[in-house]
Specification:
The protein has 77 residues and is mainly alpha-helical. It has four helices and no strands. The chain is globular and about 40 Å long.
Length: 77
């Protein structure tokens, strides 16, 4: 895992995005929905997705991590 501080420009763009384009909870929901659909595709052995399993696993993990940052859901008890 790589850690790096966001540039002020990137930080400003993210703030603008979440203030004017999409709500944090809606973005987290969209990320979870995409992850669910991708996971189903892999589980159902879709040829195209099967050739990219490693990338999908990494993407699935990081999208879930981002969704949790935006709107903690899975970590709540």
């Amino acid at each position: 895992m790589r850690t790096k501080t966001l540039s002020k420009e990137a930080e400003t763009r993210l703030i603008d995005f979440f203030n004017h384009v999409i709500d944090l909870e809606d973005m987290a929901k969209a990320l979870r929905q995409v992850n669910y659909i991708l996971a189903l595709g892999v589980l159902r052995e879709h040829e195209t997705l099967q050739t990219r399993v490693n990338e999908l696993e990494n993407g699935f993990f990081w999208l879930n991590e981002l969704a949790e940052v935006l709107n903690p859901y899975l970590s709540e008890e």
